[in-house]
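Reproducibility note. Readers wishing to regenerate the assembly model reported in the main text can use the exact inputs given here. Chain order matters: entities are listed in the order in which they were concatenated for prediction.
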Amino acid sequence: MPDPSFVFAQSLSGLTAAMFLFLIASGLSLIFGVLRVLNFAHGTFYMLGAYSCFQFVQWLGVGGGRFWVAALAAAATVALLGGLVERLLFRHLYGKEELYQLLFTYALVLILSDGAKMIWGTQQKSVSRPPGLTGASSLFGATIPHYNLLILLLGPAIALAFWFVLQRTRVGRFIRAAALDRETLGALGVNVDALYTWVFVIASFLGGLGGALISPMRATVPGMDTEVIVEAFVVVVIGGLGSFWGTFLGAVIYGQVLSFGILFFPRFSIFAVFALMAGVLIIRPWGLLGRPLK
Amino acid sequence: MRKSFDGFLAVGGVSLTVERGRIAAIIGPNGAGKTTFFNLVTGHLKPDAGTVRLDTRDVTGLAPHDICRLGMGRSFQRTNIFPRLTVYENVQAAFLSHRGRGHDLWSRVERLYREETEAVLTSLGLRERAGETSGFLSHGAQKQLELGIALASEPSLLLLDEPTAGMSATETRETIRLVEHIARERGLTLLFTEHDMEVVFSIAERITVLHQGRVIAEGTPAEVRADAEVRRVYLGERR
Amino acid sequence: MALLARVPWGPLVLAAAFCVPAVGSRFYTFLANDIVIWALFATSLNLLVGVTGLVSFGHAAYFGIGAYTTGLLMKKLGLPFLLAFPAAGVLAGALALVFGFFCVRLTRIYFAMLTLAFAQIVWAICFKWNEVTGGEQGMPEIPYPSFDWVAALPLVGGWRTAEYFYFLTLLMVALCLWLLRRIVGSPFGRMLTTIRENAERAEFIGVNVRRYELAAFVLAGAFAGLAGGLFGIFNRGVFPDFAYWTKSSEVLIMTLLGGMGTFYGPAIGALVLIVLNQQITSYTEYWPFVLGVILVVLLFVFPGGLAGAAQAAARRLGGVRRA
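Running the prediction on these inputs yields the following structure tokens for the assembly.
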């Protein structure tokens, strides 16, 4: 019988992982909800966020709040990239078959991840934690790094902020409307084209931010994009494609299943995750909090 | 039969009997529940209450493909063809399915049911266009093709959902004459919905009028035309 | 142009393929062997994607199952190829039946996601079931089938084992492709295309859409399993990544690159992709980047894939009629 403090530590670690997954998955869910396309390249935006953060930290250093500047700058860079991709390329595929759009996002994965290799090479990169957050505390008998604690607070905070934007701002309302009925929205005079670009920008920002924030915790390596995108798919399926809180819930569940799975059934933890995904799709395809697609 | 969607009563207590070999029509303003009613009959929707009987057989709740096999054919309101297949292939597909060849993984498909397919195409005046890709046909021609597909399922009851929608006056007259001719020739029972009153009154032997999901009148064209409630609903609408 | 259509391309290409070991080096035989197996894999996927309109993200699952089946039967149980090879198809088909049953109840994106989930489950099992599948290390050293009896024959003797295996692969793949071609050109195949074109309408000409989709799923899975069985031997080893989602995306790209609207499109896609890969990796390590750019160009300029573009060009040049 594992002792409670260990269980607590595992649970927290699962929650921390969930926060990052939530950031990527929410972007994925947003793009799917509005543009009806599954963006394979989202994991790559996440990876680029991590690499960019590394780069900004190289230029700026980590002291005196500079890490946070670097992280935001990284997220902004990725957001800009996302916007450009949508504006210049993706926009022209809107009328075409979904399969072609999917293929395009996959081509983006190839181009961008190799692009990252060209710029930063294949050696893994690491970012030091910002000073002031390098320590750890003892909580209920478990040692929790301070940075992790901050992420545990930041995660829900960002979620709430994002939710606020969706519910209370004009842009947010347009986004929700576009997810429901884009033709009518266009007929009402809203510039749907610009809205789509904004959706891409916001989603890429979230993904990039996730990557930037995780860079002090995990090594930044090529291949982290293909690994994370499948995890994001699982989260979005469990929570419900297009549902905001569903994504949050899905991320939390995924994090817990994975961390406890590794603890109790190490050989089956990856299996468990995909079995969960399959199970949700079989029993309730629109996820825990999603709505059936028309 | 009765059907509600999220509390909205689309079809409420509608009962309809069509005699074999007769031509019947369902009319009513937009939103009266005509297409919903059709969807209930063809198995695309399950009724909350009521049954559907084909001949003496209860077909309520059966899957559309099973109902089709039992002898019901249907055309749809929005043109429903197989766009990248040729005109010939569209009709042939219905024969292949109906005659049970779908399980054949071996024969070459081109020559099968050639005569039957060409016969249907000829009766619709589409014989010369057999090799054309159906998605590129004009709207009127596609509607005719749709009729051809429905006919190739060799139905005993044919349901036509707004068969002349979007057609010009000439096309409408031709199509409706054709439909009547084919129905008589094959002894088909025909049930159709229409917006074009001329069409309805010209060939229907029996008309049912729906309004807000309920039957408000039923009878011969003359009876329906004279019905006060029908006049109110239609004249009222035009105001 | 009509003359070009009369040329018996199939037998010609097959004959040319047989000549490769005679005129080319070992390396070319290796490359050709790779291409031929992937051609089968891609064509099997096209039965789902191009013919029936079902996009699967998890086709590699059946490829992997086929590879592990043949590998296990030949390496651990010492069964002959003639038993182990069909077994790959049977087992892959059986698994496709189970998975497909659940998948065809869903549409479009959910269908794709479930195919992905099942494939990742297969991968996870192969990755972790050390006792049976060798786990992360996989199963290296799958034996070649025994070709001694062939080497002893008068005319065809004197080739190396790898070359005999290549001939065997050619024969098996040619047979499978011929079968697939018959299936696609049959009434059953036509029913599948009606599902692709308009599933609602197909339902109302009496087509039990779910059942046909399941049948297509099983057939596609079975043939993918056969391709996998061949690949395991060719690759001299079977590894879990055979079932990983990136393998599924590779074969999907081949199918789309070559053109899913024609029967041989995917095979051409396999040829082009593998040759391009080989050529470009000799100049640069950034093959994925190049592939990505090619895909983007293709998407914007040739949506029908290479075969689609060729067909369109041929049509414009003068009236090629379909048989």
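We highlight two features of this model. The CA atoms of residues 72 and 157 of chain B lie 5 Å apart. Chain B has a mean pLDDT of 84.
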